[in-house]
Amino acid sequence: MEEEKVNHFKLYLWCFTFLKKYTFFVIAYFVLVAIQETCFILLPKQIQKFIDVVAISKDFSIVAKLVTYTILIVAVIIIVRLLHGLCGMVFCEKGTKVIQYAVIDKARDLGYDYFEKTPRGDFLAKTYQNVLSVYFLYYDFIPNTMRLLCAFTLPLIMIILSKNIYFIATVLICCLCVAAVTLVSSRRIYARNMEIRDITNLHYKKVYDCIESVRDVRGYNSGSWISKGVVSELGNLNSKKLRNLGLEQRILNYVNFFQAIAIGTYFILGINNADGNFFSVGNIVAYYAYVSMSINALSKLTNLLINQNKNLTDAEKPYTFMHIEPTVKESKNPTNNRIRGNITFKNVGFNYENQDSILKNVTTNIAAGEKVVIVGGSGNGKTTILKLLLRCYDCCEGEILIDGISIKDYRFNDLRSSFGIVFQEMFLFSETIRENLKFAKPDAVEEEFTKAVKLAEAHEFIENMKDGYDTMLGSRGENLSGGQRQRLSIARVILKAPQIYLLDEITSDLDSITEAKVMNNLFDISDGKTMLMVSHRLSVIKQFSRILVLNEGRIVEDGNFNSLFKEGTCFYNLVKKGVIGGDE
After folding, report:
1. Predicted pLDDT of residue 556
2. Mean pLDDT of all residues in the chain?
3. What predicted TM-score, i.e. pTM, was given to this entire model?
4. CA dihedral 357, 358, 360, 362 (to 10 degrees)
């Protein structure tokens, strides 16, 4: 689907909103730039006076004054340059950090559903890579546009004050031609930059996928296939960039051509009026400097606008990203009720985007402190129930209550702080084991770490590692076995000690002996707290006093093991078919 074109004026204003805290530095920068360019305009006039009055008229009485004024002007330029450089550095660096933090916060607000639909590589390219374009707008284009506009406008005013109609007309016509060429070409450049940006994002996505899939690529021996895709996109990207570079170079050639015409016309007029009716020698030098300054600033401004067009095009991605409305929103009038753990599902229905309903009319109540296991075949919505409790998504139909209050009325922080979640595929950071545990409880002390790890039956394998708790983990904990990763994830939830435990196939990679120890420990530490677990292991299911059986998105059976394990029940059939099994 074709993306809607973003208004670049609105994009500029949006970029400036992140500089509100640094308004003083922005204003100071622009004032100092105006002072600097005004000082540059005064220098040719000083040179004119020196030539006309001192060198030609031999009037040496003003030499000291001219030298003093010139030194003062140069000193002001040096000081002002230093100051506006510092101001620019402050608002550029700090403003970019503000927008980077804003992107991270926005990603949190958009939540789980956005990232399930958006490839990780695509997200990284759209946000972090393209956020650099906003940095370049702050650091280079916004300040330099202001500076070059002053550098172009002030000499042009001096040229207009010369009152020579032919000279003024020639310079203005050349400037208008440069502006016309730039405007006409900008649309073509914009279209090509859009194409380059999208191909760049696709390339980054493929590179990310290439890195993330290294294990599977080796397993299938398909390195040449995935490399071919990356190289193909890179070749396409380079081809588009070369074509765009050619267009930009042609525009700059036009600018240089009109610059040559303006300066050439100036010299022709000067030669035709060499008798002094047009300019004095000092005026010739001064106005030559003004023409050069004005046209040179316009040339640089044109080049800047061409490059700025590319950066604005790239900056559209974070701009668009920041204007996405989250599908799951926090209540404006949240409750302050303390969560105890009673969970109620009332006629809950849910379907993922463009898919059939995965949950249908789910109705049940789980008392605070109750231990319940959910079973069923694949695709019946077991994990989805846990995600709905966390408000990764909102129900499409019905509602979920906690302690008699809709989960939509709780603050995100209060709701999620009450839950402890272990997904089947839990994420481990490329940090030490200690840092991965602190993720669950940042202020935990060493004794708490050790206790949680021992209860998760992970202490022994950690102690056997060379660096123990300071062992660095690879990407997603790849240097650990599946069972070790699961036990670290279990240690996290034990360390957090939540009011409600949400556990998804947490023993699938554990042997039966370790599984029994872990489950016994979990039941002990969660006494009086609610536990909702998804499992297909018969040895685990038997330990729960209540079993919910899902089939085709509905709760079809609800009871304990003895009441459900009878011929003719759905639960019994699942066991006999091997959907529910284990080591027994």
Report:
1. 94
2. 82
3. 0.71
4. -150
